[in-house]
Amino acid sequence: MMPPEQETTATTTTTPSTITIPSPNLNRPPETGSGSVHAEPSSHNNANPVCLDQVLAEHQPQSTPSLKYSSNSIFRESLRPVTLKFEDVGYTIKLRSKRGSCLVSSQHEAKTTSSSSRVVLSGVSGIVRPGELLAMLGPSGSGKTTLLTALAGRLPGKISGAISYNGQPFSSSMKRKTGFVTQDDVLYPHLTVLETLTYAALLRLPKKLTKEEKIEQVELIIMELGLTRVRNGVVGGPLLRGVSGGERKRVSIGQEMLVNPSLLLLDEPTSGLDSTTAQRIVATLRGLARGGRTVITTIHQPSSRLYRLFDKVVVLSEGCPIYSGHAGRVMEYFGSIGYAPGFNFMNPADFLLDLANGIATDIKHEDVTEFHGRLDHHDDQNSIKQHLISSYKKNVYPALKAEIQENHKIPLRTSSSRDSENQWLTTWWEQFMVLLRRGLKERKHESYSGLRIFQVMSVSFLSGLLWWHSNTSHIQDQIGLLFFFSIFWGFFPLFNAIFAFPQERPMLIKERSSGMYRLSSYYFARVAGDLPMELVLPTVFVTVTYWMGGLKPSLITFVLTLLIILFNVLVSQGLGLALGAILMDVKQATTLASVTMLVFLLAGGYYIQKVPAFIAWLKYISFSHYCYKLLVGVQYSENEFYECEFGLHCRVMDLPGIKCLGLDNKWWDVAALTVMFVGYRLLAYVALRMGQPH
Ligand SMILES: Nc1ncnc2c1ncn2[C@@H]1O[C@H](COP(=O)(O)OP(=O)(O)OP(=O)(O)O)[C@@H](O)[C@H]1O
């Protein structure tokens, strides 16, 4: 609903024409009572009355943010205010097939754009100062997320135009001053709200703060974001019911607020939320902005109540700007170029979205049918969009450009202050320990899942029964059991490890983009965290099956058998990690892994003894082959005899299956497994590093 003072302006209807407005500075706040949509927000807010009412009551002209909050509040003043300027930002993506492109490109610049690329953003400019809340509006697919990601310094590929932060390009120190909340909340579903925020605090807050001080910050965030009621509830996700969508969104915002960011960017923080919750979130953002932060958010369909909380708006239509400036002057501007809402009490955001879609509601109420009939007229819509874009270029852009190019005083910094900003906030060991604890907590349900234990134990007992008390008179069966050990404990850890990195990729990208930790500390924590369960299950399995299956009743042989299998598990896990990290796609990785393991199984030396020479080398790359060879080697000695026929004893070494395997050179087999153990893990690390955003 449009505020009363706006309605008077909005009723004036003019046909789109070549009206020029006298070079307004739309980035300056409107004069009081000048037909602005910018009004004091109402203070209705029941959910967190004290805090948010304070925030709303705090509403001051943004040039002089007056702060009444204690130094502990999340609404406290930002330590390093950031002025963000972006000029003529453009972004083009390469496409596999020819598709539509930015309106301007498709109609006017098509010649200069190759058929396999698409313009997502073109000529977008703006300026946001500390204390301001800027909203990006536009229809779905208009490029809001792309622009936001570009402003957060996280867009891969080449961006044209200029983006500056206090007059400087994006840097690693700016990265740590920036909070970025993505549209989809990237959170660990099994952690509670308190745990999620605590781990984030331990990783993101500087080492000069004690653990208690970091936890104090977490408590503060929980209180100020109204999460006290759900502090011990699990966050949840698509497969696990947890806290509500709005609460989850607030947890995401809280994670970013912990570091008191100077620049906060949020992608559709209100999508899917009821209007009261949306109002609360935007009011919180406004409060944060008033603390001297620069806050930018994309928003889909804000109510007029929400719209009033924005200081500035950028309106995009197919990647091209049709407005960039003060939110309160938007109706005045569009009115002056011939567009005004046809309905009384129209939400300004609806009006802007209609315009961005090329729909001018400059019609009387009784013409509604005709209006809807016209929605299909693409030519009309395109010409309206064209007119809006050219009007922006003529009327808005020159003043905006002059303002962006105004000399900005860059504060002098000594090299020591720059260095200290670029250093990691916590030590390698601290990062490793926090990530290890967090990983163990998050994955304990998965690692110790009853299903997984049942799977291993049932196979263990079943094979124990099948090989029940076998002895050397059935030596072929016994070596079959040893081969089964090497294959089962090759497949199982391999397929478990494949999921590790592809599943964690969004979290890794998010956290590494905010400079939270080193890749090496994450990697070692992840690998170490998986070890306990990866080693406990095979230990139990081997203990049960070994003694049930009647293998050599010697403690030393049993321990050696167990150690060989555990080593095999680690090598196989390494291969799984490497495949997952290289392909980053579970489907592709599992397909490749199953082919690899089948080859290893066939080349392992159990099924085929006479392999053609040209392909015999395959066994040398099969870790199952080395494992099997070692298992046979510790089970039987070269001078051992077995009962080959009734009353007749033969040398173990003369059994064809063992003879072609060879029981000598055990240390070479151990060395080959060691090379694979290190090599696969190194490969996984390098693949992860290469897939990281810079
Ligand atoms: N990497 C990419 N590959 C293919 N298309 C892309 C890529 N990045 C952006 N696009 C396209 O660019 C357009 C703008 O995308 P963007 O996500 O920025 O839109 P949006 O305004 O945020 O949409 P929504 O409101 O639906 O989230 C879309 O049509 C999208 O498909």
How do the helices and strands line up, and which of them pair or pack?
Elements: H1 4-10, H2 49-57, E1 84-94, H3 103-109, E2 117-128, E3 133-137, H4 144-151, E4 159-165, H5 172-177, E5 178-181, H6 193-204, H7 211-224, H8 245-257, E6 263-267, H9 275-290, E7 294-298, H10 304-307, E8 312-317, E9 320-326, H11 330-336, H12 348-356, H13 368-373, H14 378-404, H15 415-422, H16 428-447, H17 450-466, H18 475-498, H19 500-513, H20 519-548, H21 555-583, H22 586-603, H23 623-635, E10 641-645, E11 648-651, H24 656-659, H25 666-690
Parallel strand pairs: 3-7, 3-8, 5-6, 6-7
Antiparallel strand pairs: 1-2, 1-4, 8-9, 10-11
Helix pairs in contact: 6-7, 6-8, 6-16, 16-20, 17-20, 18-21, 18-22, 18-23, 20-21, 21-22, 21-23, 21-25, 23-25
The structure holds adenosine-5'-triphosphate (ATP).
The site of adenosine-5'-triphosphate has 11 residues, from helix 4.
Brief digest:
With 694 residues, the chain is α/β, with parallel strands linked by helices. The chain has 25 helices and eleven strands.
Proportion of strand residues = 5-15%
Number of helices: 25
Give every kind of bound small molecule, once each. adenosine-5'-triphosphate
Q: Mean pLDDT, rounded to whole units?
A: 79
Give the overall form. elongated
The whole-angstrom Rg is 33 Å
Number of strands: 11
What kind of assembly state do the chains in view correspond to?
Answer: single chain
Low-confidence stretches: 1-24, 31-69, 98-114, 363-375, 410-421
